[in-house]
Amino acid sequence: MARILVTGASGFIGAHVARRLATDGHRVVATGRDAARMRTLDGVVACVMPADLADDPLDAVLAGCDVVVHCAALSSPWGHVEAFRKANVVGTERLLDAARRQCVRRFVHMGSPSIYFRFRDQFDVGEDFQPPRHWITEYARSKWDSECRVRDASDGQLQTVILRPRAVFGEGDRAILPRLLALAARGWFPLVDAGRALIDVTHVDNLAGLVAHCVDADLLGNGRAYNVSNGTPIRVRELLEQLFDALGLHPRLVPLPRMPVLAIAAFSERLAHLRKGCPEPRLTRYGVGVIGYSQTLDISRATRELQYAPSMGIDAGLARYARWWKTHDHA
Q1: Domain extents for the chain?
Q2: Catalytic (active-site) positions
Q3: Residues 219, 224, 227, 228: what is their CA dihedral angle, to the nearest 10 degrees?
Q4: Contact 53, 110 (CB under 8 A)
Q5: Domain 3-173+202-229 sits in which CATH superfamily?
């Protein structure tokens, strides 16, 4: 079994990946910035080592590791360019440098399909990508820049693989589903373009299983990128109805036209830029766009080259999430 460093283990995806790899018998070193959250991994993984990838020494964290699974990232639709660059680009650069010094053989990097986002419908988006002249979010720009560093680092010694999972959900999710539920708590939910957009989502178990495969599989390891999703696109309205039904919630779904909502979001962003600290507005153009425009991914490369076969469906995944939510004092 391999000794594997999992970064971002204090986060949602990283914690699930660390648990899956430990269950498979690997010796997992879990690292992250939130030491309190990582205590849940005590007794599960071989070692817990809190660290900030952008500032702290990393050689001791990587000592003896065969594989790195890099899940750590500053993930947000809003924020300062310097913060995204430090966390997502500089942190990745320093981790790659340390991995080379410690003779790590494989580096699995968690990318993001946010790089594909445009204010238009997109279907069956493949992995081939040319960066836009103007990025919609600094997060997406930083994730692309970090991917480029990972791709360039691939050589005879270090094999690199990039996964781009779309809208990961499941138990412990602190981003996607909680944001939707916070909106629904008012008793009504704004349904952009009547919820007609067709989107992809990914259950975290499917992603963790794919990572486990990437650790041991015979791969090219040349920085190749792979789209990841459940492979079953779903309408936004249908997804929300299933989520609310599983949780026993009954918010009123209020259809809103796409363009006026985008205009309001743009105005909210301008106001935020005028405020001290530039706080995240309640409404952003990206937030509106991801549920207002269709985006589906072509995952045939992952199914063909990585033997990816998602086993946890959306219905079952939402049901499991609802059970977890109700037993963790959220109901």
Answers
A1: 3-173+202-229
A2: 139
A3: 30
A4: no
A5: NAD(P)-binding Rossmann-like Domain (3.40.50.720)
For residue 267, give every residue at least 6 positions away whose Cβ sits within 8 Å of its Cβ, in sequence order, or none. none
Q: What tens-digit pLDDT sequence spans the chain (331 residues)? A: 889 999 999 999 999 999 999 999 999 999 998 888 888 898 899 999 999 999 999 999 999 999 999 999 998 888 889 999 999 999 999 999 999 999 999 999 999 999 999 999 999 999 999 999 999 999 999 999 999 999 999 987 899 999 999 999 999 988 888 888 888 888 999 899 999 999 999 999 999 999 999 998 888 778 999 999 999 999 999 999 999 999 999 999 999 999 999 999 999 989 988 888 888 888 899 999 999 999 999 999 999 999 999 999 999 999 999 999 888 755 5
| Lookup result for tokens 């966390």 | 87
Other beta carbons within 10 Å of 260 = 9
For residues 289-299, b (16+ Cβ closer than 10 Å) or e, as one string?
Answer: bbbbbbbbbbb
